[in-house]
Amino acid sequence: MFKNKILSLNDLNKKIIKEKLKKRKIILCHGVFDLLHLGHIKHFKEAKSFGDILVVTITPDQYVNKGPNRPAFSIKDRLEALAALESIDYVAENNWATAINTIKLIKPHIYCKGPDYKDQSKDLSKNIQKEEKAIKSIKGKIKYTDDITFSSSNILNKFGSIISNNQMSLIKKLNIKYNFKVMKKMIDELKKLDVLLIGESIIDQYVFCEALGKSGKEPVLVMRDLETQQYAGGALAIARHLSSFTKSVTLLSVLGQKKEYEKFIKLNLPKNIKTHFIYKNGSPTIIKKRYVDRINNNKILGVYSINDEKLDNDNEKKLEILLKKLSSKKDLTIVSDFGHGFISKKIAKKISNQSKFTSLNAQINAANIGYHTMENYRNIDCTIINENELRHQLRDKDGSLLYLMKNLANKLRTNNVVVTQGSLGATLYDKKTKKTFKCPAFASKIIDKIGSGDAMLALLSLCLKKGYDKNFSLFIGSLAAAQSVETIGNSKPVNKVKMLKTIEHLLK
Length: 508
Known about the structure:
- The protein is of the alpha/beta class.
- It has two domains: 158 residues, HUPs (Rossmann fold), CATH 3.40.50.620; 322 residues, UDP-N-acetylmuramoyl-L-alanine:D-glutamate ligase, CATH 3.40.1190.20.
- The chain is 36% helix and 24% strand.
- The strands form three sheets. It has a nine-stranded mixed sheet with strand order 11-10-7-14-15-16-17-18-19, sandwiched between helices.
- A hairpin with a 4-residue loop joins strand 18 and strand 19.
């Protein structure tokens, strides 16, 4: 029965030890194998000819990075499809994102890859180089098959239901102007930008719990805390998103008077992020604690540790001096105003009067709703806002989205207004040309919406500063947002390699 071929890695290792005692030569193939096609079948047949026992390990679902709604087939389906092939002796789900640890575990004589991996410079992740190093470290060899090359992504994009009509329409529009090589070069060009980021530093704490039930004496849900995870949030998260795309990020932010969490922050920021902190008198470092049901990751309760009063005169003077000193040396300024007392009307005006390209996200949240406004800013090059926040900002529940975007553009004298709409994607209004651009959402699985707007702000701002096409800029911003919602909170920054691989597969 072919299902007997499907083993855990530990059981596979035991089998391989026995095969080696029989002097059998072991070949290992590794990949996603999301859609089994003729190219795969020929690849496995040739790989088997290099030795006696062919082992195939498969990338787990959580590590598949080929764009939205991938993998199309679950790990269970992919294992069974491969196990049905006569040329394959054993299949196993890998425990890691790459084959490096698997190679070191089972120690095959040959690690076999397809012909499209011969030119290692095309491998964006550089994992093939690491895997080659791993096979050589255990005295094995890497070999490449000569079979014809098919693309699972190309087949699924053309004939599957992986990509929606709206997504396909945008991709085709972009593909007329740019191929992957050009897009990659455009994203690489962002590295030249030197960014000033202004906004509050926030420590996001997630307390994962399980429900015990109702209290015996009160109508209260009782939870047991299991684990607490802590992430760099607020402007810190935006800085991390920017860090792998730009050469340098300078963060101008605020911490509590006692400098709480400064060591944690510096340990969690990449080296190309330079920090300048105002230590707010009489205030703690902002902590946003969220209690989360471990079963489904639903948030149950939020508790903020915050002092949202305005900076005192001494603190504000220090902020003014730093703003003047830092802004003159940067290519663009990104402002994420969480409305917790860091950026006063006076400072907002000074930011607005800069000649540099400036992007703004002034967020409404539980602590500032009804008080926070974008109208402290003027002459901004790009403003990003959620649709609900836009309606609240303009006190208009029923007006058309385009009418509201034009209204905000005129009020703030902003060149570009971008409205995010969750699963409906994002819309950009260009005040100068009076044109509207739309981009569908690209998230395939939503784990946590926290921080998605920040991720879009980071990448969209860079693209618009470079003067890139509005459709392309929205596309890159949307891919950044999609990465963000697929992780808990701000646990992971937007990854450049992951984005490039997603684009590469979408364009096939």
